[in-house]
Fold:
Amino acid sequence: MTEVSTTDTPAPSARDLLKHLQQEFKVIGEHLPLAIGIDKQLLESHPSINRKQLRAALGMHTRSVRYLKNLQAATQRFHLDGSPAGEVSQEQQALASKELIERFKKRAAENRAAQAEKEKAEKEARAERERQEKLMLLANKFSRK
Structure:
């Protein structure tokens, strides 16, 4: 792994760090279920990584839809080198499924609310156009020619 942070340049963002880790480690890039304590493995192999940014990057990764989908269907966790690191419990699979369901429900509710707001705005715009047209008709009818 290349040097992640130096004294001359600011530390990369957690997102940049995650992209780098996804490129370097196949298990992270393919969103496979990671071994418990994978952060310790990463810090041991790359001590220059900022611990706080690593935790943020791994948090983004493990909360991603793709990771959660893989976790809910997986039976095995993996080390950085791709070797097995233990099983994914049924409880962990269920938690991943629950998180995905809640997230999709929330997204669907947000989409419904946005659609309702859009329809309301369109209805108000249509009503305003009709009102303006009626005013123009009245104005034409009663205007002096």
In short: The chain has two domains: 1-88, 90-145. The first helix runs from residue 14 to 24. DSSP finds six helices and two strands in the chain. Residues 21 and 79 are 13 Å apart (CA to CA).
